[in-house]
Amino acid sequence: MAPRGRKEERVISWEERRKELVSLRDQEKWQDILCMYKHPHEDGETEDWDCGLLWLRPSERSLKFVGEQVSQHGLTKLLSIGCGSGLLEWLIHCSTGIHVEGLEVDAPWWSSRHAPPCFLPENQRHLLGPEETLSEDIPEDVALLFCYFNNEPAFNQYMNQYLGHCLIIIGPAGVGDTFPQKDLVEGNSGEIAKGGRHCNPRPFSIKQPWVLSAAHNVSTSPGDYIAVYTR
Q: How much is the pTM?
């Protein structure tokens, strides 16, 4: 029973929240999705983010930063490796107009009824079988995105197949990371992610011949950065 004078709140299940997200997607209300889990409770805390759909908590500014960087490098297309549900990719497209496609492995799982809802249209989401690898090179006219990727050997293989010049890494910074000069980072620099979040590669771990050209601190997702590299 709720304390006297305080309205009792109904607990909303993840399944219900995901149905609401899908409804908002169908209505193309992407800004409502950004706000969906950020309404404060009376105790000042915030709703939990559905990490099964996306680890990052993007802000509208962070989405537009990605679009601006892609455009500044003379590109109009973005390919996201390990796109999962495609939620981030769909949000980037809706907020910037950039054409976004995603690639994900384990087609049987992502095509099953147990998989999370998908936000990218089917013709913009490419699935590989568990033992399949990408058979063609990734063309030079697309920017390449990795968000919370966690497989360094696979990352290196994709990079060997990438012919382009714009690489975007999104994920948490960790203890021991070397942060770039402050003039390269939009927002605060030096913030470390908490809660055991990690990725591989990390945003500021990419080596030559790649050179960091810009970075963004995702203010709504403490410790997460968007790092843009060129070669």
A: 0.91
